[in-house]
Amino acid sequence: MNRICCIFAGSPEVGVPCLPIPDDAYMLCADSGLRLAELLGIKPDLVLGDFDSLGKVPSDLPHMTAPVEKDDTDTMLAVRYALAKGYRKFRIYGAFGGRLDHTLANLQTLRFLHSQGAEGILIGINDYLTLQPSGTRCYPKLDGFSFSVFAAEQECTGVTLSGVYYPLTNAALTNTFPIGVSNQIIADHAEVTCGTGMLFIIGSRIM
């Protein structure tokens, strides 16, 4: 399925996400992610979770209630639900700015999506983050944002960056040295090639 699934998570950040929300996407809210959707004027297709964060069950909207004592986060619950419906492209909004353990859980959710043959991107007001496996991908320039590339595994080899201020050619990146931090896209887009391993691709607003 090519249609995108947008999941709104419960970050306390207030404001417009740094990447746009597709108009024709399937909209899911994970518990208090409903607040973000309402702030952005979005009516979700479904709200699901244990509703401990929202503090109430939204009886006026389509909803699915889960027990508080469960293995999945509410965001992971939404991911599993959408995967079962056939979605393979995800945008998770409200993914940053709250508790660090929740942020790390969202990072692991991206890894889970990859293991299921899907892909996702975490999006906040000031940051976005996605995973790139082996291969070549292009990333458009976003004015006012840095562009960083990190090894998401012990080592990534054959890493080549072009269209950026600090290019790389056939480099090895490890998870013990952050050589890829705070680059900038200077062309219309950056082109990133990863030979082996998996990369974190991060855009962050320059303060």
Topology:
Elements: E1 4-8, E2 26-30, H1 33-39, E3 46-49, E4 63-65, H2 74-84, E5 89-93, H3 100-115, E6 119-123, E7 127-132, E8 135-140, E9 145-151, E10 155-162, E11 168-174, E12 189-194, E13 199-205
- Please provide the ordered H/E string of secondary-structure elements: EEHEEHEHEEEEEEEE
The major β-sheet equals: 9 strands, mixed
Radius of gyration: 17 Å
Quick one: how many beta strands? 13
Fraction of residues in H or I helices: 10-25%
Q: CA-to-CA gap between the ends? A: 37 Å
Name the average pLDDT: 91
β-strand percent reads 35-45%
What structural class do the secondary elements suggest? alpha/beta
Low-confidence stretches: none
By DSSP (H or I, 4+ residues per run), the number of helices equals 3
Report on this model:
The protein is α/β, with parallel strands linked by helices. Helices cover 16% and strands 36% of the residues. It is built from three helices and 13 strands; from the N terminus they run ββαββαβαββββββββ. Strand 5, helix 3 and strand 6 form a beta-alpha-beta unit. The chain is elongated, with a radius of gyration of 17 Å. The mean pLDDT is 91.
Q: What would the keywords be for this entry?
A:
four-stranded antiparallel β-sheet, 207 residues, alpha/beta, 36% strand
Short description:
The protein has 3 helices and 13 strands.
